[in-house]
Write a structure and sequence with these properties.
The chain has 273 residues and is mostly helical. The protein is built from 9 helices and 7 strands; from the N terminus they run αααββααββααβααββ.
């Protein structure tokens, strides 16, 4: 799917070979959804989205345990108005408690950034997916991963077959007292994550403003570009995001020319091209 999307993007640009830029754009489309540049947003909505995503990105970079920031954008993708995306440096097969707590803090970075800038009265529904994700992570830490000292190394949630409805559901074989303890432990993890995110953003408010202004200007920042913005360094967009590559054997263009005619890649018509 990734390679096919990259081939279609290259074909639309009139290129004869797929370059790394097409793979990068295709990866974003596959993992984050297609861009919706036609979506109309007011300047206030765009600015609020920029603060929200900058909050995610800043907490992600400042809290140890998170994967490196890969990209942050305020271009609507899929159902989201903006996306903050991280990638691991190598294959990851499990996560420890430090990493899980870091993910929780990052999830609240956007909501708390908006709260610090606009106040409680301006909180909106845009953080619904962040809250849902954080709640799922915290509850799994308590009921499935044995990361609660009070509840110990026990699994409090079991999978069960839904019968004729199909698929698997969950059930909890716990008493009311234990259920209250689970809720209390989940709330503790959430409140700790909120406090961590708030501390990072409060202590680095100038960096939050820098990232927000850069997003409003460029719409999308890579992880390296975000670091440069925070450090106050200028961004060289001519070399980073241009389709034109340096000269290769005297040829200037995105890819070197080839003598033979390349074979067609798939049937582009089936993809609406």
């Amino acid at each position: 799917n990734l390679t096919n999307e990259a081939a279609l993007l290259a074909a639309r640009k009139g290129k004869r070979l797929i370059a790394n830029l097409e793979f990068e754009d295709a990866k974003d489309k596959v993992m984050m959804g297609a861009e919706r540049r036609s979506m109309v947003m007011t300047e206030d909505e765009k600015k609020a989205t920029a603060y929200h995503e900058s909050g995610h990105a800043l907490v992600l970079m400042r809290v140890p345990g998170n994967n490196p920031l890969h990209k942050v954008t305020i271009i609507p993708r899929g159902r989201a108005l903006g996306v903050t995306f991280s990638l691991p440096e190598r294959d990851v097969h499990s996560h420890n408690m430090v990493q899980m707590k870091a993910r929780l803090a990052m999830a609240f970075g956007g909501r708390i950034a908006e709260q610090l800038i606009y106040g409680d009265e301006e909180l909106n529904t845009g953080a619904a997916s962040d809250i849902q994700q954080a709640t799922q992570i915290a509850r799994a830490m308590v009921t499935e991963y044995g990361m609660s000292k009070k509840l110990g190394w026990l699994r409090y949630q079991e999978s069960q077959d839904n019968g004729y409805l199909g698929g698997l559901g969950t059930r909890s074989n716990v008493s009311e007292d234990t259920a209250r303890m689970i809720d209390a432990e989940v709330r503790t993890l959430i409140e700790e994550a909120e406090a961590t995110a708030r501390k990072v953003l409060t202590e680095n408010m100038d960096e939050l403003h820098k990232l927000t202004n850069a997003l409003l200007e460029y719409e999308t920042l890579s992880g390296d570009e975000a670091k440069k913005v925070i450090a106050g360094e200028p961004l060289d967009r001519n070399s980073n995001n241009s389709d034109v590559r340096p000269a290769i054997d005297g040829h200037i263009g995105s890819v070197p020319q080839i003598r033979r005619k390349p074979k067609p890649f798939g049937d582009a018509r089936t993809h609406g091209a």
